[in-house]
Design a protein that fits this description.
By secondary structure, this protein is α+β, with helices and mostly antiparallel strands. The chain has three domains: 4-19 and 61-263, no CATH class; 281-360, no CATH class; 375-448, no CATH class. It has eleven helices and 20 strands.
Length: 449
């Protein structure tokens, strides 16, 4: 159940420095014993044998399920002015960065995951490798390994995991400092009121919008391809603390997630400045001498705020069409409102100029794009459509078999006699096929009645 601390007001954001679980992942044993203070003539034992209960708390260790990853920034494969942006990853579980420890000691509370950033010049050619899980800690010449122990199950697993092997000097130069890790991770709670969530629809606890965030400690290199690695620091706590020195060879790190992006181009603010400098009014103007060469229909359209724009039609052909923005201060009669199924249905033909008016079509497309951008709306629509597709054929089939018809004032039996379906039912196993058959009969009956 959610506590009162998990509740969040609409439109607000909560930040927390950390969200550590009561116990990190690992194996534990609980021992219990009992001593009885007996007196008198009763022969009650004074002590009982101690009883131990062993259990294991699991958490991701060598790989990360994609369902745990909410998003990354910058986007994988994107290009942009990211030189001032700190690469980070957002996880769907708020305790994940603290579910393991980087060093086996009491009170260890630093996150065990870290976003390591390398540019294309720093990343060795064969740095990223795939090796078997049961071989990840096998000593190799010139390779420093994390000081951890594999569980009995992990020692038997023959599955490939991804590792990163980089020079020790490079790792020492970019690895987070002893007290820096705490500032590279935090949790946040976001308002999910307007976001579609299947768990919410099913009245399940969706963790109240809590997320965990891990950021790198380096800025991307301009005009280079940069690669971010979400790596495990488990077993490297002594290296971070400076008690274990790795001066040569390579350091092997387990990679949980990897994505690349290119730092190039103008920033968003620069693009806006350029847009403001090049912005012009969307209108057509004619010189006095030119007006004589245009028809009255064209001049009248321009008078009412229309302008000609390039129009790429659905069939791929290019055309010039009329467009008028919604803020032009001219009153236009409101057309009859239709339930348009596509933007093309909202196109209007101006007979005076033999050109299409795309104003309402553009508004329809803009409205749909804004609606679909809202995850709550788009998710709800998708869920409704899927439910409708499943229920409508079944309802039609039920009506065809059960509902009587009234024809010329006379009551007639249902369109489909259940006995007529018996041969088909015996030949098919799928309800979907049966429903399609019923709908086909329905269509045939409509043509004959």
């Amino acid at each position: 159940m959610l506590s009162s601390n998990d509740k969040i007001d609409k439109g607000t954001l909560k930040l927390q420095s950390f969200s550590r679980p009561p116990l990190p992942a690992g194996s534990y044993t609980v021992n219990a014993s009992m001593d009885v203070d007996s007196s008198g003539k009763n022969t009650v034992p004074k002590s009982f044998p101690a009883i131990g209960l062993s259990f294991t708390i699991t958490a991701p260790r060598f790989s990360l399920d994609t369902s745990l990853i909410h998003s990354v920034f910058p986007l994988a494969g994107s290009t942009g002015a990211y030189e001032a942006a700190m690469p980070h990853i957002i996880l769907n579980r708020k305790t994940l960065p603290w579910e393991r420890v980087i060093k086996e000691k009491d009170g260890e509370k630093r996150p065990w995951l870290y976003v390591l950033l390398l540019n294309e010049d720093e990343l060795p050619k064969d740095a990223v490798k795939e090796i078997m899980l049961n071989k990840v800690l096998t000593p190799a010449p010139g390779i420093s390994l994390p000081e951890i122990d594999l569980t009995a199950e992990e020692k038997l697993k023959e599955e490939k995991i991804k590792v990163l092997e980089i020079p020790a000097a490079l790792f020492k130069g970019i690895a987070p400092l002893r007290d820096e890790l705490d500032y590279l991770a935090h949790t946040r709670q976001v308002d999910t009121t307007d976001r579609y969530n299947k768990d919410k629809d099913q009245n399940k606890d969706n963790n109240a919008g809590w997320l965990s965030v891990l950021a790198g400690n380096r800025l991307p290199t301009p005009n280079k391809i940069n690669t971010a690695f979400l790596v495990s620091l488990e077993g490297y706590g002594d290296v971070i603390d400076g008690t274990r020195v790795i001066s040569s060879g390579n350091v092997r790190l387990v990679v949980m997630k990897q994505w690349s992006f290119k730092v190039e181009g103008a920033s968003f603010s620069n693009l806006l400045d350029q847009l403001n400098g090049n912005a012009k009014e969307l209108k057509m103007e004619f010189r006095a001498a030119e007006e004589k060469t245009f028809s009255a229909g064209i001049l009248n359209a321009v008078k009412f705020g229309y302008t000609m724009v390039n129009h790429c039609r659905r069939d791929g052909k290019q055309a010039a069409s009329w467009y008028r923005g919604p803020l032009v201060p001219v009153q236009i009669p409101v057309p009859f409102v239709h339930a348009y199924k596509s933007a093309d249905k909202a196109l209007r033909l101006d007979k005076a100029t033999a050109a299409f008016d795309i104003s309402y079509a553009a508004a329809w497309q803009l409205g749909r794009s804004l609606a679909l951008e809202n995850p709550g709306f788009s998710g709800g629509i998708s869920n409704w459509k899927n439910t409708f597709k499943q229920e409508k054929p079944i309802a039609i089939a039920r009506d065809l078999i059960t509902l009587e018809r009234i024809i010329d004032g006379k009551t007639e039996p249902p369109i489909i006699n259940p006995e007529d379906l018996e041969p088909t039912i015996k030949e098919i196993d799928s309800d979907e096929v049966l429903t399609d058959y019923v709908i086909e009969l329905w269509n045939k009956s409509r043509k004959t009645t």
